[in-house]
Amino acid sequence: MSQTRMTKQRMVILEELRKVDTHPTADEIYAMVRSRIPRISLGTVYRNLDLLAESGEILRLEAAGTQKRFDGNTMHHQHVRCIRCGRVGDVMHPLDVPQPERAAAKGFTILTARVEFEGICDHCTAHS
Amino acid sequence: MSQTRMTKQRMVILEELRKVDTHPTADEIYAMVRSRIPRISLGTVYRNLDLLAESGEILRLEAAGTQKRFDGNTMHHQHVRCIRCGRVGDVMHPLDVPQPERAAAKGFTILTARVEFEGICDHCTAHS
DNA sequence: CTTGTTGCAAACTCTTTGCACTTAG
DNA sequence: CTAAGTGCAAAGAGTTTGCAACAAG
To answer: What does this protein need as cofactor (chains A, B) (predicted)?
Structure first.
């Protein structure tokens, strides 16, 4: 079994990330951490973010895959994404979902739901 | 004002996308379209998917930006994303959101919500 | 005709990885 | 000690873009 060592790098990445509520990207974290460990590499930041996310110490938003997906159906409906392979399906009646037994999404076993709101931040409202 | 021309390429991309409900990625669409227009380029596929999504003829899933974001707060909470700049904020009491006036997400004006379910598709269940 | 669109290839952005060296435990 | 982790640089994956030729309206 592979152990996990609390290196200075991992420690600082975790500390810096916990200081803010801005949901920074990897390169933003890289910049934050570099003020304390100037010679840290971006690769190390990525590796540690992975490890920290796997161990549940931090969250990675948009768990969704790296590729964008398109849908020819523009009717209002929601999606299910397979956490293993990334395959995406449609959910037609979201309100039926709470009871996992009634498969609202055919072909998928739903485990959790994430709600993502979209809007405009005050900063952008001000500068429009 | 720039016009928009219905080229054979754009037509076929739209037709192929409407044939399926698999939410294909750009390169999957590229493969589908190439069976009908062998010399089409991947760049053309990307350009047309952009145009079609902008005109509302198709949907682009995960409107979210291209970079992954991380969160040091592992408590259960949801996110708001600015559709203009990509900035992400926290939503603490999702149930308050329906009334836009009560700003559940400070610093953001919420426009819409997307629910994304996560689960495991039958294909992956079978092969585990 | 005029200007939007295409194919191609090069450029870009973000993320991952191989390797020799370093270091936590 | 020794295996996990690091820095660096190169490689990958996915997407975007400049440009000359092409074609829709």
So the answer is: Mn(2+); Fe(2+); Zn(2+)
The per-residue pLDDT for range A84-114, each reduced to its tens digit, is 665 667 776 555 444 444 445 567 777 776 6
- pTM for the model: 0.76
**Chain A interface, best mutation among B20, B30, B71, by max A CB count within 10 A:** B71
Query: Which residues of chain B are within 8 Å of residue A48 when distances are taken between CB atoms?
Result: none
- The structure tokens listed for B31 are 């493969």
Please give the C-alpha separations between residue A121 and each of A5, A117, B6, B46, B98, in angstroms, as whole numbers. Answer: 39, 12, 36, 28, 17
Task: List every span in chain B annotated with CATH 1.10.10.10.
Answer: 8-71
CATH number of B78-126: 3.30.1490
Q: Where in chain A is the domain with CATH 3.30.1490?
A: 78-126
Query: How far, CA to CA in Å, does A94 sit from each of A111, B5, B22, B115?
Result: 13, 38, 19, 8
Structure tokens at A6: 């609390």
Residues 3-62 of B with CB under 8 A from A: 14, 17-27, 29, 49, 53, 56-62
Report the DSSP pairing between strands A78-82 and A70-71.
unpaired
3 state DSSP class of B118: strand
- Closest-CA residue of chain B to A49: B70
**Which residues lie across from A121 on neighbouring strands?**
B108
